[in-house]
Amino acid sequence: MYSTKLSVSIHIMSVIILMEGQPVTSEYIASSINTNSALVRRLMSRLKKAKLIKTSTKLGVTGLAREAKDISLLDIFIATEDHQDLFSIHSNTNPNCPVGAKIEVTLKNLYDNIQTATEEKLSAISLADIIKELI
């Protein structure tokens, strides 16, 4: 199963923007996502560490650390995903097999191209673009 961290993190940041500078708690955001606040706090911690959001211990999230137009989906993806390669290649294939001998190199080139294209697409979409769709 693919991770939903990117989608949930975009949801978190969208709530922050739409609350127009008011402090937002993890409990409030969790109710919007329909999940538990511990998951929201873990993701918010990563977003804060990546300098994408500002928080206050007593208030919760107090806003974005940068303008929404200056935060790309790639920034959020890198901040929240543990492993950033979209695909992994199995290793230790049989070098005596015609497929096993070449599959890693063949898939690596293909997967590298897909990874690059995906990252380019994610970097071209800003959080502000998402907000325009939500409003």
From TrEMBL:
Entry-linked InterPro entries: Tscrpt_reg_Rrf2 (IPR000944), WH-like_DNA-bd_sf (IPR036388), WH_DNA-bd_sf (IPR036390)
PANTHER family in UniProt: HTH-TYPE TRANSCRIPTIONAL REGULATOR YWGB-RELATED (PTHR33221:SF15), WINGED HELIX-TURN-HELIX TRANSCRIPTIONAL REGULATOR, RRF2 FAMILY (PTHR33221)
The name this protein goes by in its record: Rrf2 family transcriptional regulator
Species annotation: Lacrimispora defluvii
